[in-house]
Design brief:
about 170 residues; about 0% strand; elongated
Length: about 170
């Protein structure tokens, strides 16, 4: 009898990336609709405005596609960072999911709001002549979205793979 195949790191990363990307953008679109009646297209163009400035908001559907690509690139980066950290820091693999997931989501929120978004604003100031902003424009409601829709799915996906592989190793 052949043992079941191990779940690959690639599968864990792709699962975490896609869950995070879909849940986060869905939550952002719902929040934007409830708070300001903004459409998903406007949300995605808002993401693209990190590089293209205010002109992104008046651009066509291609700019929304740019925003979606940027969003999923950030989601992949957050997933890869957690995967790498979890290989080196045991507590990320062993502490309760409902603690590690939201904490990692809060860390991603802080990195985005106090690092990535202001850095993009600074870079944009060089070629668009706009004033840099610090901190970023993210609000506290987005902290909760990051805790639930970013941190939890990433940590869950990476840990599920670890658990499945451990179980397969024990049964082999």
């Amino acid at each position: 009898m052949t043992p079941e195949p191990r779940v690959s790191a690639r599968r864990a990363i792709v699962t975490g990336w896609l869950l995070c990307g879909v849940l986060d953008i869905t939550a952002a679109c719902i929040q934007a609709w409830i708070q300001a009646s903004r459409t998903p297209w406007a949300v995605l163009k808002g993401v693209a405005s990190a590089l293209w400035g205010a002109a992104a908001m008046n651009a066509g559907p291609g700019m929304a596609a740019v925003g979606l690509t940027m969003h999923f690139t950030v989601a992949l980066t957050a997933t890869l960072v957690f995967y790498a950290l979890s290989r080196r820091i045991a507590i990320l693999r062993t502490a309760p999911l409902l603690i590690v997931g939201p904490l990692y989501g809060a860390l991603v929120f802080a990195a985005m709001n106090y690092g990535t978004v202001p850095l993009m604003s600074l870079v944009r100031s060089f070629y668009l002549g706009t004033a840099p902003r610090w901190p970023g424009s993210m609000r506290w409601t987005q902290l909760w979205i990051h805790m639930v829709c970013v941190g939890l799915p990433i940590v869950w996906a990476i840990r599920t793979t670890n658990r499945q592989n451990r179980r397969l190793t024990l049964h082999a």
